[in-house]
Design goal:
heterodimer, A: 149 residues, alpha/beta, 6-stranded mixed beta sheet, 17% strand, B: 471 residues, 9-stranded mixed beta sheet
Chain lengths: 149, 471
């Protein structure tokens, strides 16, 4: 797991945590996409953490309690859809939003796995950032309504 | 929280399956709608073939919207030259310059830092400009930086990784040859390859565009001729046969030829939508017969297209007048005359003009006088054959009844063999001749008439002020 310098971690999972920054955990093997995601999400004011496989992502999710997990489907050990199902079934991660961001056009399967949003690659900076912001808004409303803790 | 699914509104699927229009409708037609968005494409061709113009035309066409396009020059041509020449084209729009289209001169950085400068440039461009299109001109010049094959492969892999990661369509321009396709690794990672070529002919050059590869997309194969004009590339997509073949059974209407005595010998005249090839020596009456057929259509209120490569418009109007018709009145009544000088004739452009004219659906009769002139203009006989075959199929589908004339000096028997390539495509074949010992004694023979009884005997032909008459 790599760590960005901007991530003051906490156990508390509210929106806009980590010194005012929402934390995004990205599960991605492609170094070019990791680099671009890191750049655009940091530029947009988010804190970003990375893992390259599903198993370590699940472990990191428990430790970091990220606001959003962005995962590719094609990642080793635990694929992105299985990771999504695990996150959604885990009571400790109920407040974590999952965005499946994949080279595979598997919207339906992502939805069945409980993903909150789906984006098809390649990366488009505005669409990625807009979707992340939209997901944080949705999550914020749910937290305020008490649907999630 | 799955009820808050946002995937429907932001999958990006539309962008992935979108096309990048080239700014040239004919090129888009060849490419099946344009280049697939987010692809990496190579535009190859020797210097002067039109690569830069092709790319610039596309950039200016796609300019606008929230995202920029970026044109990167490397080592082969300085930025000042690229900019100086692009301003001469009609598509150049100074308002786009610098805003919608950003130009980046990488020559000095490449010379100083080597190929790594290209990676840094692309990385920075993507992060700071989020471009929709990146053109690198020339990409082949990177090979000239004394880079080993292994280093070049690693470099290409990194560039491909970077360009594939982001939603950007890339064009790598280069003075590549056919041998380079096997040699250079960028061809393996390219989603699309378009070749621009120039073939010298006796008095002029012929230019062709050819798509060699377009992943995940259908395209029109073969060579497509083009010219470079002030508007950019003026393309003539290769004509292909229509998908719906003509149904001969449905075309039972016969047309009057306007030649006394001929219709009776043709079982009532040629069928609507059929093609009749008239073969004969100079002075045997081919053009006159073609004009009679055309003017008969005008008399019946039909629109007629008469294409001529020998007589200029003034000569043709005189020939029309000599048959007792007022040329201006005939033209006002539906006769369209299309003249193309055999010196400047390029089969692609003339066939596209014919095709454009018949596409409207109003032309009922067509005369091409003479197809042999097309033959002389064609550098590749097979290409001419394919064009004529496709054109005739399109004419048949549209119900356009056609007369083609062909000049020949041989006798009846050898004519059949010599002109087999033309005759087999025609429904009807008629020979006109005169005897060397008695030039006034002209004859006609109907050699073939598909789907109809006909008189196969050699018949005398007279030509007077009213035209041909078959006895």
């Amino acid at each position: 797991m790599s760590s960005s310098s901007e991530v003051p971690l906490s156990q508390d999972p509210p929106v806009a945590n980590r010194a005012g920054k929402a934390l995004i955990l990205v599960v991605e093997r492609d170094p070019h996409i990791r680099d671009l995601e890191s750049y655009f999400l940091n530029e947009a004011g988010f804190a970003v953490e990375f893992t390259t496989d599903g198993e370590s992502a699940l472990a990191a999710a428990h430790t970091l309690q990220p606001d959003i997990i962005i995962t590719e489907v094609l990642v080793p050990k635990l694929d992105g859809l299985a990771l999504c199902r695990s996150v959604k079934a885990d009571p400790d991660l109920r407040s974590t939003v999952v965005l499946v961001f994949s080279i595979l056009a598997v919207q339906s399967r992502a939805r069945e796995a409980g993903a909150d949003a789906f984006l098809l690659k390649p990366l488009a900076s505005k669409r990625l950032v807009d979707t992340v912001r939209e997901l944080l808004l949705i999550r914020s409303r749910l937290v305020n309504r008490g649907d999630v803790e | 929280m799955s009820e808050n699914w946002t995937g429907e509104i932001s999958t990006g699927e539309a962008a992935v399956f979108a096309r990048i229009a080239t700014g040239n409708p004919q090129a888009d037609e060849i490419l099946g709608g344009g280049f697939p968005a987010n692809s990496i494409n190579i535009v190859m061709g020797q210097p002067g073939t039109g690569k830069t113009i092709f790319a610039e035309q596309m950039l200016f066409h796609s300019a606008g919207g929230p995202r920029q396009s970026v044109y990167v020059t490397t080592l082969s041509e300085p930025m000042s030259k690229v900019l100086s020449y692009v301003q001469r084209f009609d598509f150049f729009d100074p308002d786009r310059f610098g805003g919608d289209i950003h130009y980046e001169d990488l020559g000095a950085d490449l010379a100083e830092q080597g190929p790594e400068a290209l990676i840094s440039c692309l990385d920075e461009t993507i992060k700071t400009r989020s471009p929709k299109i990146i053109v690198i001109d020339s990409f082949r010049a990177i090979h000239d930086l004394s880079v080993s094959n292994d280093d070049m492969r690693r470099l290409i892999s990194r560039i491909a990784g970077l360009l594939s990661a982001y939603e950007v369509t890339a064009f790598l321009l280069g003075e590549y040859t056919q041998d380079d396709i096997r040699r250079y690794p960028e061809f393996a990672i390219a989603d699309g390859i378009v070749e621009l070529a120039r073939q010298p002919q006796t008095t002029r050059d012929e230019r062709f565009l050819r798509v060699l590869k377009l992943r995940g997309s259908s395209y029109r194969e073969g060579q497509h001729a083009f010219r470079i004009t002030s508007g950019g590339l003026d393309l003539y997509p290769r004509l292909v046969a229509p998908r719906v073949p003509e149904s001969y059974d449905s075309l039972s209407t016969r047309l009057a030829t306007g030649v006394p005595g001929l219709d009776e010998r043709m079982g009532g005249g040629p069928f609507a939508g059929s093609t009749t090839l008239i073969v004969g020596m100079t002075g045997s009456g081919k053009t006159t017969l073609g004009l009679q057929f055309a003017l008969e259509g005008v008399k019946r209120g039909e629109e007629v297209l008469f294409i001529n490569f020998q007589e200029n418009p003034a000569q043709l109007r005189r020939a029309i007048a000599s048959l007792g018709f007022d040329p201006e009145a005939a033209q006002a009544s539906g006769l369209k005359l299309l003249y193309a000088s055999p010196v400047e004739l390029q089969i692609d452009s003339i066939v596209v003009q014919i095709f454009d004219a018949i596409k409207s659906g109003s032309i009922r009769r067509l005369v091409i006088d003479a197809v042999g002139d097309l033959s002389h203009a064609a550098s590749d006989p097979q290409r001419l054959h394919d064009y004529l075959y496709s054109l005739i199929q399109h004419l048949a589908v549209r119900g356009v009844t056609t007369v083609l004339t062909l000049e020949s000096w041989e006798g009846f028997t050898s004519q059949v063999e010599h002109h087999q390539q033309f005759s087999y495509m025609s429904d009807n074949l008629i020979f006109l001749a005169w005897r060397a010992e008695n030039p006034d004694r002209r004859t006609m023979r109907i050699v073939k008439m598909r789907g109809s009884t006909h008189d196969a005997a050699v018949r005398p032909v007279d030509i007077d002020a009213k035209g041909l008459r078959v006895s």
